[in-house]
Amino acid sequence: MRRLIQKEENDKIPPLKGSFREYMSWPLVLAALLIVMNLVIYIVDMKAGTIMTVFVTIYIAIAASIFQYYRKQLHSDLMNYASNYAQLQKRLLDNMAIPYAMADNAGRIAWSNKEFQKITEQDGRGHRTLNAIFPEVTSRSYPRGSEDSIVHVVFCGRNYQLAIRKILFSDVKDMLRLNDQELTKVSMYAIYLFDETEILYYQKEIEKERMVTGLIYMDNYEEALNSVEEVRRSLLVALIDRKINKYVNRYGGILKKIEKDKYFVVFKQKHLEELKEERFSLLEDVKTVNIGNEMSITLSIGLGVGGDTYPRNYDYARSAMDMALGRGGDQVVLKEKDNITYYGGKTPTQEKNTRVRARVKAHALRELIETKEDVIIMGHHMSDADCIGAAIGIYRAAKTSAKHASIVIQNVTNNVKPLMERYCNTPEYDEDLFITREEALKRIHPNTLLVVVDTNRPGYTESPELLSCAQNIVVLDHHRQTREVIDNALLSYVEPYASSTCEMVAEILQYYSEDIRIKSGDADAIYAGMVVDTNNFLNKTGVRTFEAAAFLRRNGADVTRVRKMFRDNMNDYKAKAEAVRNAEVFESCYAISICPNDTNDSPTVIAAQAANELLGIQGIKASFVLTDYKNQIYISARSIDEMNVQVIMERLGGGGHLAIAGAQLKGVTIEEAVARLKEVLRDSINNR
After folding, report:
1. How far apart are CA 431 and CA 425, in angstroms?
2. Are residues 499 and 541 in contact, defined by beta-carbon separation less than 8 angstroms?
3. Contact 282, 214 (CB under 8 A)
4. Contact, 408 vs 453, CB < 8 A?
């Protein structure tokens, strides 16, 4: 049988090809030259030509015989050489220092070299599939095209980079005698393993040695100094400096005082995890400094990390500081590229007694309005009294500058209907005072000023499409900023210390123009917004809150009219009472309830009112009322001064203030939302 197979192979010896065939055929090529020479000799001498013909014939016969005789032997020698070369190549691969293996498209290992076997079989198990060795390798890990696929795996405590390369059979399909259709079914992969344990270790070490850039600001420097005797002021500053220096030196950092209340700091990134674990204790340590000062010093810290250069980290630190100040201070904001993390923020925001910033913003707003042809005012969706009141105030400012202005509002809730009805069909106000988002989109043009009130998050606005169309944007808000902000605003006035946006607008109107004339309807709307957001001046009120209210009263605001506008109907009152009655006390201090949504058109407002009512119960530190409205779960969170509900709501995707916050959840049921809220509350208790 072996002889028959060998004979069949000899009969089917493939022809020689390429330069090697040309090299072996040169004697026959010379035979053609001899034939031409023979013909020339025939012409010269017939007898000599005949003799030449005999020798040429003998030469051709001998050359052909030799070629035919050695052809089989040559092919056999080439096969032996190829076989020996393949064996040599196999030995080289087998002894190669790089772990190498062959696998099929199912991940079964067909062959592997000694290094691969040494690594993969050191645990004593004879693995025959890649997935059994490296669970990270799945069917999606294999390359689909000609490019290699890279998978990072961990095996026996070491890190490896596993490269998978597809082997193309197009060059050997004739040898395998496969057609194109069968060729597509054949898939083999070359597997390479590269140990990257040390590389990753040194990368981590390099990351630890990188510098973190930071800024430290005192939030209430002037106020704290004014609250202590003059002879002790230098001592207070020295003690604060000592606290900050000692804290920074503990972690091997460098501190530089750049202004009387501002510091620049750098330290190695390896200390950052320690700072996170102890949650930046400097914030609380500084508050313990007391030499008779009635007001404790609080700090805002902005840290930048992860930038490719030191200037980039400094830019991150400045952005983080802006975020910390915009959120009310007394906290650390860590910015790492697009990721932002907050720490602290448990102290109520201190009200600023100076109105310089309000005056500057008022003048800037007037210049923007006077240079534009049209003004469109927009608040958040499901507008409340604070949103409508602030919008009415900006409308009056625009009319003072003789500009056409309109307010975008899509859905009117029962809570603000009495307020809005005062402006409909009234000659004192334009017919298009309130417009829909579709009308606003048709009306906006490059010379339109879009003023956003009572929100600084683009996703919460009445029409996010307007933000993308507008080229001139102004933001006025009193909520603390989150990572999602309107970042292309020409003017941004965000003051978390303010009780409401209406308070901010009332101050702006005082400095907007000397000849401004605020109508009683305008004053009622702005006053109503302040009443609702402060819960009848019980929450987050300061000196400037009452000064703004006094200004509105002087301009015709009527307390009785405002109170009548916000009286509850019977169904709303019953829904609020039901939410209070069914409240659950969680962890002995948190009130959680569900507001019914089948008896009123604005359950979110009722939920907020119910949350305020629950705070009147003794022992309750914070209240959370949930309601299902238009396939979304709305959460209203309230506290007095014992808990920062803003931090809780931020973890659920919302935001707000220390004592007033909220969140919106999509794609969950009311029961799932309650479970998520309880989980966040448990984590908050454990991380104290």
Report:
1. 7
2. yes
3. no
4. no
The number of angstroms, rounded, from the C-alpha of 432 to the middle of its chain's C-alpha atoms is 39
Q: Helices marked H in 584-656 — which ranges? A: 603-614, 645-650
Query: Under a CB-based contact definition with an 8 Å cutoff, are residues 102 and 110 in contact?
Result: yes
- Give the amino acid at 643: M
DSSP E strands, 460-538: 472-477, 491-494
Q: What are the E-state strand segments in 306-458?
A: 331-336, 339-344, 374-378, 404-408, 434-435, 448-453
First to last CA, the chain: 85
DSSP category for residue 290? -
Question: Which tens digits make up the pLDDT trace of 443-456?
Answer: 999 899 999 999 88
Q: Which residue has the tokens 């220390």?
A: 658
Distances (CA, A) of 674 to 582, 594, 667, 669: 14, 9, 13, 9
What is the Cα 226 distance to its own chain's centre?
42
8 A C-beta contact, residue 346 and residue 536:
no
Q: Over the stretch 31-54, which tens digit does the pLDDT of each residue have?
A: 777 788 888 888 888 888 888 888
Over residues 478-520, the pLDDT tens digits come to 887 777 788 788 888 888 778 889 999 999 999 888 878 888 8
Q: How many helices (H) and strands (E) does the chain have?
A: 27, 23
pLDDT at 526: 92
* Spatial CA neighbour of 585 closest among 471, 666, 474, 678: 678
Query: Please, which residues have CB within 8 angstroms of residue 289's CB and are 6 or more apart in sequence?
Result: 236, 239, 240, 243, 296, 297
d(CA 553, CA 506): 11
Instruction: For 376-423, write each residue's pLDDT tens digit.
Output: 999 988 788 889 999 999 999 999 999 999 999 887 777 787 788 888
d(CA 314, CA 335): 10
Distance of CA 176 to the CA centre of its chain: 52
Q: What's the confidence (pLDDT) of residue 175?
A: 40
- Which tokens sit at 523? 């004053």
The residue-averaged pLDDT of 546-557 equals 90
How far is it, in rounded angstroms, from Cα 607 to Cα 621? Answer: 17
- Average pLDDT (587-592) is 89
- Cα(161)–Cα(197) distance, integer angstroms: 9
Angle in degrees, CA 273, 277, 283, rounded to 5: 105
- Which region holds residue 260: left if phi is over 0, alpha if psi is between -120 and 50, else beta? alpha
